[in-house]
Amino acid sequence: MIGNDGAFGAAQALDDKVSLNKVTMQVAGSASAIDSDRLREVAERSKSFRTLLIEYELFMTAQVQQTAACNAVHDVQTRMCRWLLRMYELVGADMPLTQEFLSQMIGVRRTSVTEVAGEMQKSGMISYTRGRRHIIDIGLVRLNACECHDDVRSHYDRIMGGTGSQLANEIA
Q1: Closest CA to 105 of 121, 82, 89, 124
Q2: Are 92 and 23 a contacting pair, CB within 8 Å?
Q3: What domains are there in the chain, each with its CATH number?
Q4: 0.85 exceeded by the pTM?
Q5: What is the pLDDT of residues 65-88, one digit of tens each?
Q6: Beta partners for residue 134, in sequence order
């Protein structure tokens, strides 16, 4: 999952390769796009920028690996809580998430998400209507999430460090 703290396709642009992935924007917002030739040009001029792109690609690999492990060992509710925590960081307590999209994100059938969402609503963690989720108690969601959310956040902090603010000063 990529939010306002990430990028998509930079490594492929730097290597002049084709991306084999598809991006789906689930929540409306602003996004920026840059021509791959222009991205390569800026990366060649700025070592810090190139390093930032490479470090983010490393983080994305760590996130994918953590997600694969999470999907293999954690139950539906803990994985759903993990994704809700991440969405909360990106868009706040109100989020446009369908059961279908959540099922794709956590790798289960839609009926499993419907069942778990009902349980979470009864316990006071969330409320939901067709295509919308609202987190009522973020502390309870965090308590029921697996450790993978914190592990991914730790990977991000360890890999990315202070590169972003350092880069802003260099490009400005």
Answers
A1: 82
A2: no
A3: 7-21+31-74+162-172 (no CATH), 75-145 (1.10.10.10)
A4: no
A5: 998 999 899 999 999 999 999 889
A6: 94, 127
Type of residue at 28: A
pLDDT band at 163 (very low <50, low <70, confident <90, very high): very low
Look at residues 65, 56, 106 and name the one whose alpha carbon lies nearest to residue 85.
106
Q: How far apart are CA 110 and CA 113, in angstroms?
A: 5
3-state secondary structure 25-93: CCCCCCCCCCCHHHHHHHHHHCHHHHHHHHHHHHHHHHHHHHHHHHHHHCCHHHHHHHHHHHHHHHHCC
d(CA 145, CA 15): 37
How far apart CA 52 and CA 75 sit, in angstroms, is: 34
Do the strands 132-135 and 126-129 form a parallel or antiparallel pair, or are they unpaired?
A: antiparallel
Q: How much of the chain is in helix, strand and coil states, percent to nearest 5? A: 65, 5, 30
Instruction: Summarize pLDDT for 27-58 with one digit per residue, the tens.
Output: 777 777 888 888 888 988 999 988 888 888 88
